[in-house]
Design a protein that fits this description.
Layout lengths: L1 H45 L6 H15 L4 H21 L8 H18 L4 H4 L8 H10 L2 H9 L2 H4 L35 H25 L12 E4 L18 E8 L2 E5 L5 E5 L3 E3 H4 L27 H11 L22 H10 L4 H7 L4 H6 L2 H7 L4 H43 L1
Antiparallel strand pairs: 1-2, 1-5, 2-3, 3-4
Helix pairs in contact: 1-2, 1-3, 1-4, 3-4, 3-6, 11-13, 12-13, 15-16
Length: 438
């Protein structure tokens, strides 16, 4: 159904965003290790001891390897992933909370600032054309950046501060390649190819701009309204469209809408959730015209009780790694993320079950590895402030998931207690009945 497809699309894009964040953070850790290794090398050169020269030379070789900075291509890759993350964050803005999209901007600009400084200024970052910025990303940054972050942003020039449609050069398509080898699924549950979300957003931006231009031109010329054909009220969407304000309506390709009012190039439509808003008419086709095509429209009057809106997968900061690395003792194997939500967790769960439960909840690998050393009882004993201290970015969402799991366990406990009470009551009634017969 519609809500399931929305959930799967949003979850897929959240996971792409999470992997961008993971790669950026891994790169920041590498820069830090490079700086530390270089610092140790510099100190050793000043305090060179002839006695242990051979041993120190061997150590120096290892340090020299660690002190070697990333290549220019690797820096460009990180700039691309940060740009991509900003556009993806704007696209996911309606679906993420605690923290919301504006609150995640500064954590993204911290590594951007470090990367710009490490490359000697904004020149290298400014040269990155692809991926081009979406209109939504530009609006998000204009409205919510701090003055300091806005100064950094504008220093990167038009490739960062102008949307794709306004660039003087064409931006080739971009598809991120992640360090851990993960790739988003290329096909949806119906076997239809899933387009890159930012490429899809660029197309939506073009549709919106052309619709707004038509609307302005018609208003200036006094052109009559564009009315739907007589008797046609049900229309199928030929493209995805994401609303950018409260008057527009987000729709998915293949979704069926009821047109309730046509005004210029924007038609007021109602979906099967009774949500009403404007949609550009050039993405709507009469339902009767698409019945024999590959597009499978969803039924208009299949009402859904609720729609699921996943929260985003968040960036993990270095403090967590430093505070918890010592407790792990060794590096754990990567556990692939899964959509399975049936993994149990209770006060008696061993660390393996805790790790599996955190994985199914979509937390980053660093979070899973760091908290996966705890038992269920230890995890449940952590309060919000403790989690916030150790996990400044993820702590609130981890706490929220713990509270939900506790509530589920309490419900099970209450049900078990109720069953016991009912069983005792039944025994009492049976015993009274036996006494009465006697």
């Amino acid at each position: 159904g519609f809500s399931c497809r929305v959930y799967l699309l949003v979850r897929r894009e959240c996971e792409i965003l999470n992997h961008c964040f993971d790669d950026v953070e891994q790169f920041m850790t590498r820069l830090q290790q490079t700086a530390e290794a270089q610092s140790i090398l510099n100190q050793r050169k000043k305090k060179r001891s002839k006695k242990s020269k051979k041993t120190e030379d061997q150590d120096d070789n290892l340090l020299t390897m660690k002190a070697s900075p990333p290549s220019e291509d690797e820096f460009l890759d990180i700039f691309q992933k940060i740009k991509y993350s900003l556009s993806l964050l704007a696209r996911l803005k309606p679906f993420i909370t605690q923290p919301d999209a504006p609150e995640l901007l500064h954590p993204i600009f911290l590594p951007l600032n470090l990367t710009v400084k490490t490359t000697g200024g904004p020149a290298l970052g400014a040269s990155v054309v692809s991926p081009a910025m979406t209109t939504g990303a530009i609006s998000l940054l204009q409205e919510h950046l701090t003055n300091e972050d806005k100064e950094l942003w504008t220093s990167l020039g038009p490739n960062w501060t102008m949307p794709c449609s306004q660039l003087s050069v064409s931006a080739p398509p971009y598809s991120p390649v992640f360090l851990d080898g993960w790739q988003p699924k290329a096909y949806d549950s119906t076997g239809r190819p899933v387009e890159d979300p930012i490429e899809s957003q660029h197309k939506q931006d073009v549709l919106r701009e052309s619709g707004q231009q038509d609307y302005a031109r018609q208003a200036a010329e006094g052109t009559d309204e564009v009315l739907p054909p007589e008797g046609e009220r049900l229309y199928c969407c030929s493209y995805d469209f994401v609303a950018r304000n409260s008057s527009e309506l987000s729709v998915l390709q293949g979704e069926t809408l009821e047109v309730i009012e046509s005004s210029k190039r924007w038609w007021k439509c109602q979906n099967r959730f009774d949500q009403i808003g404007f949609v550009p008419s050039n993405i709507l086709e009469p339902l009767s015209a698409v019945n024999n095509t590959d597009i499978k429209p969803t039924l208009l009057f299949q009402r859904a009780e609720k729609s699921v809106q996943p929260t985003p997968l968040l960036i993990m900061n270095e403090e967590l790694l430093e505070r918890l690395a010592g407790k792990r003792g060794s590096v754990r194997p990567v556990v692939p993320r899964t959509a399975d939500t049936s993994v149990p967790l209770n006060y008696h769960s061993p660390p393996a079950e805790v790790e599996a439960w955190l994985t199914t909840k979509g937390f980053s690998q660093q979070t899973v590895h760091s908290l996966g050393i705890l038992t269920g009882a230890q995890l449940f004993s952590l309060n919000k402030e403790e989690l916030r201290t150790v996990l400044p970015e993820d702590g609130v969402r981890v706490y929220s998931q713990i509270m939900v799991q506790k509530a589920l366990l309490e419900d099970v406990h209450k049900l078990t207690e109720l069953e016991k009470v009912m069983e005792r009551q039944k025994l009492k009634i049976d015993l009274n009945s036996e006494n009465d017969v006697a």
